[in-house]
Amino acid sequence: MGAETPSVILEIDGNIARVSLNQPESLNALTVELAQGFLQAMLKIKDNDNVRVVVIKGQGRAFCAGGDLSFLAGATQEKARRLIDPLHEAIEIMTQLPVPVVACLHGVVAGAGVSLALACDIVLAAEGTRFNLAYTGIGTSPDASASWHLPRLVGLSKSLELLLLSEPFDANEALQLRLINRVLPVDQLGKASEELLMKLAKAPTFALGQTKRLVRGSMQSTLKEQLDAERDSFCACVQTQDFTIGVEAFLNKQKPSYTGR
């Protein structure tokens, strides 16, 4: 796409970073331009201390239909890396952001689109959203974190079933599998996502970031290591303005107004 129509749009709306996949004519299929644009968006968010929550959406009729097969046709290893490497770097940055990342899904979510959604912290989907891991359907293995997140979400056996068979499933099944958090009517997805974003943007940001880090790191930790990490995070939170605000509000039976500091 041309410079006037970026593949990824980043808007900083107060404390909310809004990331839009913007290749609607191809159902936001993953191109080199989109992967690089997504990486640049994550880098900018990482460097913006005012951001307290991130939301990722797809423009048009789909969230993301997976890799751009017209680009991948006859691909060499070098060509595949040009597509995958920036996306992987972006996902690594995204999962390490000290703020929640919300995905809003609709339409088609396939291949790397599913993988990207799995890497987000909270996932909302409209009724009628269709999912498919799709990788073996085109003779390849997963990328974009699917093989890391899926076993942690649904276990080994179900992960292998979803990945090996590449069978489609709908939003309700995705919810039952705990791949997503909520299913909403299409006409309510926008309102519900905005309410969630506002709630997270007004929450104690440092505490949310510490909680995200603890949970995401727990699978690699022993119990002793996790207990130590919890102690250290709790002690770090105690030093924040938001902890003081939260405790005082609780003791005075008032609603806290967190600053994100």
Describe this structure in words.
It is a single chain. The chain is of the alpha/beta class. 49% of the residues lie in helices and 15% in strands. The strands form two sheets. The chain has a six-stranded mixed sheet with strand order 1-2-3-4-6-9, with helices on both faces. A three-stranded mixed sheet has the order 5-7-8. Strand 2 (16-21), helix 1 (32-46) and strand 3 (53-58) form a beta-alpha-beta unit. The termini are far apart.
Topology:
Elements: E1 8-13, E2 16-21, H1 32-46, E3 53-58, H2 69-72, H3 77-96, E4 101-105, E5 108-110, H4 112-118, E6 122-126, E7 130-132, H5 146-154, H6 156-165, E8 169-170, H7 171-176, E9 182-184, H8 186-201, H9 205-217, H10 223-238, H11 241-251
Parallel strand pairs: 2-3, 3-4, 4-6, 5-7, 6-9
Antiparallel strand pairs: 1-2, 7-8
Helix pairs in contact: 1-3, 4-5, 5-6, 9-10
What features would you highlight for this structure?
261 residues, alpha/beta, 2-enoyl-CoA Hydratase, Chain A, domain 1, Lyase 2-enoyl-coa Hydratase, Chain  A, domain 2, 2 domains, 6-stranded mixed beta sheet, 3-stranded mixed beta sheet, 15% strand, globular
Helix segment tally:
11
CATH superfamily of the largest domain: 2-enoyl-CoA Hydratase, Chain A, domain 1
Helicity range of the residues? 40-55%
What structural class do helix, strand and pairing data support? alpha/beta
Q: What's the domain count?
A: 2
Q: What is the third-level CATH name, the topology of the largest domain?
A: 2-enoyl-CoA Hydratase, Chain A, domain 1
Radius of gyration: 19 Å
* CATH architectural grouping of the largest domain: Alpha-Beta Complex
The average pLDDT score comes to 95
Low-confidence stretches: none
Number of E strands: 9
Q: What is the class of the largest domain in the CATH system?
A: Alpha Beta
